[in-house]
Amino acid sequence: MYLMSIEEFAEYLGETKRTIYRYIQSGDCPPYIRINKKNIKFDKKDVDDWLESRKIRPQSPAKQGDPDA
């Protein structure tokens, strides 16, 4: 298990710490471990799984019901 700090998580996503705190507040974030009141860690595997679950897989026009495709 590799635990990431909020700073590392933000850097991994290319986001700011403020954005990570917004994710946490909204509940739209990967599972995390609260070490104490001010110390939150994310398991990198959970982060990667969370990112994978957010992937959008576009369909080709033929699969969207385009009669000319």
Question: What features would you describe in this structure?
Answer:
- The chain is an alpha+beta fold.
- The protein has a single domain, classed as Arc Repressor Mutant, subunit A (Orthogonal Bundle).
- Helix content is 41%, strand content 16%.
- It has 3 helices and 3 strands, in the order βααββα.
- Strands 1-3-2 form a 3-stranded antiparallel beta sheet.
- β2 (33-36) and β3 form a beta hairpin.
- The longest helix has 10 residues, at 17-26.
- It is elongated and about 55 Å long.
- It starts with a strand and ends in a 16-residue tail after the last helix.
Query: Which secondary-structure class do the elements indicate?
Result: alpha+beta
CATH C-level label: Mainly Alpha
What percent of residues are in strands? 15-25%
Query: What is the helix/strand order?
Result: EHHEEH
Radius of gyration: 17 Å
The domain count comes to 1
Major beta sheet, specifics?
A: 3 strands, antiparallel
Number of helices: 3
